[in-house]
Amino acid sequence: MFRSLLLSACLLVPFTASAETVTLRVLGQPSGSGLIAQQKEEPFFKALAETTGLDIKVEYLPIDVAGIPDTDGLRVLKSGLFDIVSIRGPQVSRDEPSVLGLDLVGLNTGFAVGREHVDAFMPYVDSRMQSAFNAKLAGMWPAGPQVLFCKPEVAGLADLKGLKVRVGDQSAANFVGQLGATGVSMPFGEVQQSLARGVVDCAITGPASANTGGWPEATTTVLPIALQLAMNGYAINLKSLEKFSADDQKKLETALTQLSSDIWSFSEELYVDAMNCNTGKEPCERGKPYKLTEAPVSDADLKAVSAAVTEISLPIWAKQCDAVATDCAETWRQTVGAKMGL
């Protein structure tokens, strides 16, 4: 009788399985890409369990250390090889063109306007990632204004004619092509030596990344006209996200969104400091001091970059994006285009 009662009582008690620690594999920015990766991204992920209170173990690996091309970020995310990927926007735009709509050449000439445009179009890019790559886009952030570093002395954009210029994406390649230059795509880690050896004459990146990569050692001039902001971001595999409860999913997504917001502010600080460092000015607190010549930005160059959106980058990109998703360009016009008054 006692055993029967005990068995009956046990059957009435709900069985609760002990939760297992979830391992999150994170594919990060290249190890040598700069202070954003070193001082913001990597520390964030290493402390993620503690700051969120989630029962997780994080394995963080820079993409170059993993030996994975940065153009494959969305592919490895979809495959489930990594749970979270720090996507490099210009590079993955070959697989998902809508990403490039966040940062067309001439669109984001500063941080404030860049935030507005990203906020307007990011929901659409997220929907594309969910349907095409089974991933949730949790945040976007800028590496910083993308400017020109050249080995030969240049006084403006017109001097790029006939030169080979390393570019980050097709939008930039189209732009320099209109100037009579040849756009060359290559991984960040190869640029410094390519500049030194004359494989390319100029290269486009942010001042902080250039400083970290030693580009001023192989160049003479910086032309500080912002062509793009080089948008990057964080995406989570949806199957990985489903391992968490609804509340814990919100905690994880909120943490990634906050990291992205923090990097926006940090990126702006880095830009000012790195421009000082690269050109031998003070204060130079975070980088190595160099003495590049800072070419003055002319009104003609500013007009050329501003006109690039409607004349070059948007028309070409719209065809590419609509070929993948027929509502892409129209959605851009209704969101970002409306903010620009197009």
UniProtKB/TrEMBL annotation:
Carries keyword Signal?
Answer: yes
Signal sequence range: 1-19
Indicate where this protein is primarily found. Answer: periplasm
Reply yes or no: does the keyword Signal apply. Answer: yes
Cross-referenced InterPro entries: DctP_fam, TRAP_DctP_sf
- GO cellular component terms, A-Z: periplasmic space
Q: Where in the cell is it found?
A: Periplasm
Q: Which Pfam families match?
A: DctP
Q: Which domain of life, per UniProt?
A: Bacteria
Q: Which GO terms describe its biological process?
A: transmembrane transport
Alphabetic keyword roster: Periplasm, Signal
User: What name does the UniProt record give this protein?
Assistant: ABC transporter substrate-binding protein
